[in-house]
Amino acid sequence: MATIEDVAARAKVGIGTVSRVINDSPQVRPATRAKVLEAMNQLDYSPARPAKTSRRRSHQSIAVLVPFFDQPAAYQRLRGVVGQLQPHGFEIVLMNVESTAQARDRLMELPLRRDLDGLIIISLPLSDEDGARLAAAKFPTVLVDTQHPALASIVIDDHAGGRMATGHMIDLGHERVAFIGEPRHNPFGFSSSGQRENGYRQAMEAAGLDIPQHYLKFGPHHSPSARSLAIELLALPEPPTAIVAASDVQALGVLDAASATGRSVPNDFSLIGYDDIEFASYVGLTTIRQPLFLSGVRGAEVMVGALAAEGSRPITEHLSIELIARSTTAPAASNRGVNTEGADSPTARGRTE
Question: What's the confidence (pLDDT) of residue 239?
Fold first, then answer.
């Protein structure tokens, strides 16, 4: 079994430095911390836990790891987690991640923590190695909006959501339907936008509709980028009559582009988003509602159950999604006044607000 001396030798640092990393001391440079964590991982080193005493910690600690927690969707999920855990008296340790280096360090460090009783990870994709390391940790891990076969996961079907959003536009008679999303290859490995794009493609192909390459636009997940991409779409000789945005945040950027170019939604083109963040209802945005708050609640409930049972099962729970029709979608110009909502259409299965 590897020792702390072996780790120090492998990382080429002193034993004191390894000890400071184990105890999460802020007096270690990030590059050195990463080097020590990598050595621990290579040697499969796990720090010895202190001997049990008759004095028990008064509170159990749950860490919540989330990238960009100030984003609307992440914030709603956090509300669900915190609201469910606080009545049980848990101490909640929020860990925001804003870079891939931060994510890598956290995912290597957390399984070694001695002061945690559980971990909830929101939206952050895991490698096979990350998942295996967390599954072997001495505390349960629950995933929300991301999944791994070795861990309990709470997710939705993004592919079905993309198909539902696009099907709504097709049911309204739109044939020139564009898509705005994130690049498939991104630093964090986020895949939800790519899955929603797959659903868009499937719906278009099933309807026998062409997907011109210039109708596919990709950029960072924020409104200014989506605004620029939408302006490019609207400047085309034959612009789309409908736009499917992979998130409400991007849809808001599209609305801004419409205002900047003198277009009216839905008179000039229809728009649908994804998530149903709080702001969506204020601007009348048609969207695919995923249960953001509920997903956080369910993740916390699974965690409470895992702690009570002293372990979690690697289940995957799928939550339902729903089409919410508001004022940013309307029948295509050629179909105005025609009832396009068939009894079995995705539009008919949605809700109008």
Answer: 97
pLDDT tens digit sequence for 28-72 = 787 888 888 888 878 877 665 444 433 344 578 999 999 988 888
Q: What mean pLDDT comes out for the span 16-25?
A: 73
Per-residue confidence (pLDDT) for residue 344, from 0 to 100: 39
Cα–Cα distances in Å, from 207 out to 36, 133, 166, 169, 175?
55, 44, 10, 11, 9
**Stated pTM of the model:** 0.79
| 10 within domain boundaries | yes
Secondary structure of residue 8 in the 3-state scheme: helix
DSSP state string for 38-82: HHHHHHT--PPPPPP-SPPPSS-EEEEEEESTTSHHHHHHHHHHH
Indicate whether 151 and 295 sit together in one domain.
yes
State the helix-helix crossing angle for 15-22 and 4-11, rounded to 10 degrees.
110
Which residue range is the domain that position 33 belongs to? 1-37
Task: Give me the residue label for tokens 């099962």.
Answer: 313
Q: CB neighbours of 213 closer than 8 A, spacing ≥ 6? A: none
Number of domains in the chain: 3
Q: Are residues 309 and 227 in the same domain?
A: no
Whether residue 266 is preceded by a cis peptide bond, meaning omega within 30 degrees of 0, is yes
Burial of 334 (0-12, 13-18, 19+ CB in 10 A): exposed
Domain co-membership, 178 together with 231 = yes
| Least confident interval from 65-79, 142-156, 303-317 | 303-317
Amino acid at 89: G
**Residue 52 covered by a domain:** no
In a domain, 274, yes or no: yes
Looking at the fold, whether 228 and 251 belong to one and the same domain comes out as: yes
* Domain match, 164 and 113 both: no
In whole angstroms, what is the distance from residue 325 CA to residue 351 CA?
6
Q: Does 213 fall in a domain?
A: yes
Give per-residue pLDDT as tens, 156-214.
999 999 999 999 999 999 999 999 999 988 888 889 999 999 999 999 999 999 999 99
What phi, psi does 151 have (nearest 5°)? -130, 155
